[in-house]
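EI: anyone free to look at a 286-residue chain?
SC: sure, send it
EI:
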Amino acid sequence: MTGETGQAPSRRSIWGPLGGDFGIRLASALVLFGFALLVVRAGGWYFSAWVALACAIMAIEWERMTQQPFSWAGVVVAALTVAAAVALATLGRYEWAFAAAGAGAFVMFAHAQASGRHRRWAFALPLYLGVPAIALVWLRSSPEGWLPTLWFLFVVWATDSWAMIAGRVFKGPLLAPRISPKKTWSGFFGGVIGAIGIGAIFAAVAGWAITWPMVAVMTAISLVGQAGDVLESAVKRRFQTKDAGDVIPGHGGFLDRMDSLLAATILYALVRMLAPWIPAGGVLGG
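SC: here you go
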């Protein structure tokens, strides 16, 4: 049935301003969260295999987005490089893990040079994926590391989710109009508030003291994660791509979902090196 204009009346989403795709986004996020919870709790080679597999998928998406013509050889080199780095990190050989990521970057550069493809983007891939992957394995490596690692993932994913929700509900001025046509300042602040709120709830349930240093770290994780999201948006804009892939219903590709995590992992690893008691301790007071 059509209206007077001859067009079918639009059906209003049950999710209101969140959009008609919010339901599938929520379902996908819950599935990913459940799987991540299992592998983070299991740790060891189970966790490392999850990291390596996620990086292999992201390598495919990166190659398709940045390289013409697409090359499976480049994907294989990048995926094997990151897998080797993850395996070495799991064995505690971190110096060799970083060496593997660096060697892979130079192999990718040489392959791109020989095949007439983008050398800088090929060189960047093993480092863009490998360094955060090594850091993530290190964060989970200690016997008690699963809970702080899970807290960190909650903070990152809360940033993503609440930035999207606040941006869709409140809208307003764009954060980086030349890079992303959807990211807003309301989403930016919503992401920071969501990260602090969800991280604090997690800490309270875990029995940790909620300290000002913890709040500062949650804020920093959110800011760096959102910067990583903007960075990937800039790469997509450079290659005129809407999504890095379509493997996750409602979210696009793994890169679209993990870009914040890739950036924030490096920051949190540095924080844990300097202050290993965050988030579980309260050394500097509340």
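EI: The radius of gyration is 20 Å.
SC: 👍
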